[in-house]
From TrEMBL:
This is DUF1489 family protein. It comes from the Bacteria. Pfam families: DUF1489. InterPro entries: UCP032025 (IPR008320).
Length: 130
């Protein structure tokens, strides 16, 4: 089972803007300062995108490549897959995500429905209400 990672989609204002960026080329490239220590386990896994304190979509990780400036490129499949929104606190950089903790993919034509916004879900969880 491959390992996944989470990353905040900080430069995207919407899922559609993220989709346009990811699907614009034959391969999407995400720049990161450091190579994940467990990078070999992540090939074939996914990069899960966080927006408004919720994991909302994912892209398959194709591999990693070092850049001339010493940073690294995460090579991504140019296909954005929507997932069932799941509350996730904001963080800097990326974090590992085990397969058992990853949200399920939405089926074609399925919409998230009346999902609770990420921040509200986090507060309700802290209160023990969900």
């Amino acid at each position: 089972m491959p390992l996944h990672m989470t990353k905040i989609a900080y430069s995207s204002k919407s899922i559609e803007a993220l989709r346009e960026w990811v699907e614009a080329e034959d391969e999407a490239h995400m720049r990161t300062r450091y190579l994940p220590k467990r990078h070999a386990e992540m090939i074939g896994g996914s990069l899960y995108w966080i927006m408004d304190h919720a994991v909302v979509a994912r892209c398959e990780i194709l591999g990693f490549a070092q850049r001339p400036d010493g940073h690294w490129t995460i090579r991504l499949q140019p296909r954005l897959i929507l997932v069932e929104p799941k509350h996730k606190r904001a963080h800097q950089g990326w974090r590992y995500l085990q397969d058992r903790d990853a949200p399920r993919d939405l089926e074609d034509g399925e919409v998230p429905g009346d999902a609770i916004p990420g921040r509200l879900a986090g507060r309700l969880t802290k209160l023990g209400l969900i």
